[in-house]
Specification:
Layout lengths: L11 H14 L7 E6 L4 H18 L3 H8 L6 E8 L4 E11 L5 H10 L3 H7 L7 E9 L11 H16 L4 E7 H9 L5 E2 L6 E3 L2 E10 H18 L4 H27 L7 E3 L4
Parallel strand pairs: 1-9, 4-5
Antiparallel strand pairs: 1-2, 2-3, 3-4, 5-8, 6-8, 7-8
Helix pairs in contact: 1-2, 6-9, 8-9
Length: 279
């Protein structure tokens, strides 16, 4: 596998210029944020890589050299979702999909060393027999766009774009390496996951507790919508519910319901997905 040389250290001036050019070319929109879908050769992919590196270095210690070694071999098969804050004119989050047919995506290539199961056994365990596979290889959101103040909108846009574009491109299977927090959050929105070949957690690229996971892609959207309904019902502030769960858990369920609704239905999101380049 050939490693493509790319840069992960785009400076602030370059990021500002590329982002401004995109917003000038796509001025229409109904919300504060827009998601641009771009291929690996696009200027916005450079913005996405720089944001990947920034968040992964702060969180896991993965600097530009590590990112280039780890993701360079997959550049040609990468698709980037870059969320831009229209109000501030800056990138807010990014996700990278690596497309393949099972073997040849990063999660499947890396998993055997950590879970003690070979590639063929992993593929057989999940019925991955040649259909299109997406590896959600990275998902990074800047700290100021996380949590309650942002209503988790940036991450919701990335997840929704994953569903919309995956359906459009005929994705059949999805895999990912998830740290503890990501695994918990994706489970909370209702995505149906199982670990690859029923494997246990392991350390991976700076994450002390990582899981390699599989998702049956066509099932995800409906499962997330069902979770929205469950969380909405569970968050109703009845006296019994308050006694059993407490206010904090009820509020957590209410937020989960709102996030699952956005991701499962595309409410206030789909009209803000712009496909610039998806090949």
């Amino acid at each position: 596998m050939t490693t493509t040389t790319v840069r992960y250290d785009l400076d602030a001036a370059g990021t500002q210029r590329i982002t401004a050019e995109f917003l000038a070319a796509h001025p229409a929109g109904t919300g504060r944020f827009v998601t641009a879908v771009v291929g690996p050769g696009a200027d916005l992919a450079r913005v996405g890589r720089a944001l990947e590196r920034q968040v992964f270095e702060e969180t896991f210690g993965n600097d530009a050299a590590v990112m280039a070694v780890e993701y360079g071999p997959y550049e040609a098969n990468s698709l980037f979702f870059v969320v831009i804050d229209r109000r501030r004119g800056v990138p807010a989050g990014v996700a990278r999909m690596i497309e393949g047919n099972g073997a040849g995506v990063k999660t499947i290539d890396d998993a055997p060393e950590h879970i003690g199961v070979d590639v063929d056994t992993i593929l057989d365990a999940h019925g991955m027999s040649g259909e299109r596979v997406w590896d959600c290889a990275t998902l990074a959101v800047l700290p100021e766009y996380r949590g309650g103040r942002s209503s988790l909108l940036v991450s919701s846009m990335l997840y929704r774009t994953f569903l919309v574009m995956g359906r459009r491109r005929g994705v059949r299977h999805a895999v990912s390496m998830l740290d503890r927090g990501a695994f918990r959050n994706i489970g909370l929105i209702g995505a149906p996951m199982r670990t690859l070949a029923d494997s246990a957690p392991f350390a991976y690229l700076g994450s002390a507790e990582n899981r390699a996971v599989y998702m049956d892609f066509p099932r995800i959207e409906a499962a997330v919508r069902e979770q929205a309904v469950r969380m909405r019902r569970a968050s109703r502030p009845t006296l019994t519910a308050l006694r059993r769960s407490g206010l904090r858990k009820l509020l957590t369920r209410r937020v989960a319901s709102q996030v699952s609704t956005r991701i499962g239905t595309g409410k206030d999101i789909d009209e803000n997905i712009v496909v610039v380049e998806d090949n």
